[in-house]
Design goal:
5 helices; 10-stranded antiparallel β-sheet; single chain; 300 residues; alpha+beta; Thiol Ester Dehydrase, Chain A
């Protein structure tokens, strides 16, 4: 058991039905700047690699959330890591999925800058018509970090706690991949981020945390203003990988965040082939600081 981990059992949420709809696929693809024709096809579009992060749109109420009965303050909730593992082909429009979410563990750790961070490992599993028995088609694992409010007397609206997610990933013993020199497979710079981009992604994914679009709410957390949804750049990176990998299925896609991305940042996406079936993607801000790193393993 990890130091500070609470010996607590969590009850899985009730399963719910998710019908993959072609209009939602295209909306998600547009919100994440997908260059892939299969995501925008007029018939049976294929879901983008991170599309299933939108599952919360199909939840009826709190009983379908792994968080049911657990308080969380969205002003101080950070996304440390995300991982998708695929055990079959990506769903196409019309696919009916059974989805069930659960918290596997929750524990505390002292941050390097002081204060207590609470880590939550949230797992969402997706099955096809077989229901929620047997191996899932897709498994999504999220590491969420709840941090403490800024110290009393700290000036509001000025902080940028850029390194907290990195501390979080180290704390849960995620091994950072060190890639050997390899082939650069894409190197692009996207247009400067806007709050409109954040809102489009929030609508497409169902992540409605107001910290990404509401200035007053963001400043109440100690931030200077709204900032990018972490999964936005993760989805853009995944789409660029799909455009390069073509028809080769991805088995695992993992992301960890290092720095917040802000309105006005024109993010640079660099994808490197690190092995016969593996890739690393670095997403950097205009100042050269890393926003996120993603790793992908394909099946061939």
């Amino acid at each position: 058991m990890t130091s500070g981990e609470a010996a607590k059992a969590f009850t899985p949420a009730e399963p719910f039905r998710m019908v993959v709809e072609e209009g939602k696929i295209r909306e998600f693809a547009r919100a994440t700047a997908s260059p892939c024709a299969e995501h925008l096809a007029s018939e049976n579009p294929v879901t983008p690699l991170t599309f299933l992060a939108s599952h919360r749109l199909w939840m009826i109420d709190d009983r379908h959330s792994g968080w049911h009965g657990i308080h969380r303050d969205f002003r101080y909730l950070l996304h440390g890591q995300e991982e998708f593992t695929f055990h079959g082909p990506l769903p196409v429009s019309g696919t009916v999925l059974t989805v069930r979410q659960s918290i596997e563990r929750q524990y505390e750790k002292r941050g390097r800058r002081g204060g207590t961070m609470v880590f939550t490992d949230l797992v969402t599993r997706f099955w096809t018509e077989s229901g929620n028995e047997g191996p899932p088609l897709v498994e999504e694992r999220s590491v969420l970090i709840s941090t403490e409010p800024p110290a009393a007397g700290a000036p509001a609206g000025t902080s940028e706690p850029a390194r907290a997610p990195v501390e979080a990933v180290e704390a849960v013993e995620v091994v950072q991949v060190v890639a050997a020199p390899g082939e650069l497979v894409f190197d692009t710079v996207q247009p400067a981020l806007t709050i409109t981009d954040f809102v489009k992604y929030q609508g497409a994914s169902g992540d409605f945390n107001p910290i990404h679009h509401d200035t007053a709410f963001a400043q109440s957390s100690g931030k200077p203003g709204p900032f990018a949804v972490g999964m936005l750049a993760a989805a853009v990176a995944a789409n660029q990988l799909t455009a390069v990998a073509g028809d080769v299925p991805v088995h695992r896609y993992r992301v960890r965040w290092s720095e917040i991305a802000w309105p006005g940042d024109a993010l640079r996406y660099q994808g490197v082939r690190t092995g016969a079936t593996s890739y690393r993607i670095d997403v950097t801000r205009p100042d050269g600081r890393n926003h996120l790193t993603a790793w992908a393993d394909t099946t061939g």
